[in-house]
Amino acid sequence: MKKLVVFSGAGMSAESGIQTFRDSDGLWEQHRIEDVATPEAWAKNPELVQRFYNARRKNILAAKPNAAHHIIAELEQDFDVQVITQNIDDLHERAGSSKVLHLHGNIRFSKSSDPKAGDHATLYPILGDSLDLSTDKCPKGYPLRPHVVWFGEAVPAYSEAERVVQQADIFVVIGTSLQVYPVAGLVHCISSTAQAYYIDPKANQQHLPQQYQKIALAASQGINQLKQILLT
Question: If you classify domain 19-62+108-148 with CATH, what class do you get?
């Protein structure tokens, strides 16, 4: 069974009503990155950061997987599918994908804000949509923070993602602007024999190695077209 690796970004979840960060009406238009998505922001104003991610979590819990999520899950019937996602939502899992690697964390989990906890801190499932600074704490007494990789933090799962991408027979990039590094560098990790596809409405504007076939469609339409190609 061929190994199919899907690398998904914000455009993957946009059809589910989850705001992207970089579009003109995205989240960064409403909040400065420095105020809500850095370790310094947490140190300066943890209340604001917690409110921001509580709102994001509520939005994600109300959302449902879209057709693209479901098609990727269905491809497990014909391929060994591994999803690598930049998204902090759990829509891939809810659609039925069995192997999902979150590069930037999963907002449904929390971890200690203890600065000594390290990259591989214990994760705690969040029941409901909110974390409370005063009551939700780790055993050492530090408030729990979202399990999200902030700007300026390391990406602990990156080396595993590199290994997975290198093993891909088929590599599909979908709904990502490829502007966030180091994870955008994954497009250059594929083997010379892999089939590679890039699905995005602005695909034709993206400069990629010639190995990539571009499908200039939104996530659901694009992955449906790719499914027909792969199963023909």
Answer: alpha beta
**Cα–Cα distance, 194 to 2 (Å, whole number):** 10
For the chain, the average pLDDT equals 91
Q: Which residues are catalytic, by number?
A: 104
HSE at residue 8, side-chain half, CA atoms within 13 A, is 33
CA 82 to each of CA 16, 135, 154, 208: distance values in angstroms, whole numbers, following the listed order? 21, 37, 22, 22
pLDDT over 90 (residue 131): yes
- Tokens at 87, concatenated: 């998204």
**Verdict on whether the full-model pTM lies above 0.90:** yes
Contacts of 73 (CB under 8 A, 6+ apart): 81, 92, 95, 96, 97
> Taking a C-beta distance cutoff of 8 angstroms, is the pair 208, 197 a contact?
no
CB 69 within 8 A of CB 11: no
pLDDT band at 94 (very low <50, low <70, confident <90, very high): very high
pLDDT class of 120 with cuts at 50, 70, 90:
confident
Chain centre to alpha carbon of residue 17: 15
CATH 3.40.50.1220 domain locations along the chain: 1-18+65-104+154-232
**Tokens encoding 64:** 């449902």
Pick the CATH number of 1-18+65-104+154-232 from 3.40.50.1220, 3.40.50.720, 3.40.50.2300, 3.30.930.10: 3.40.50.1220
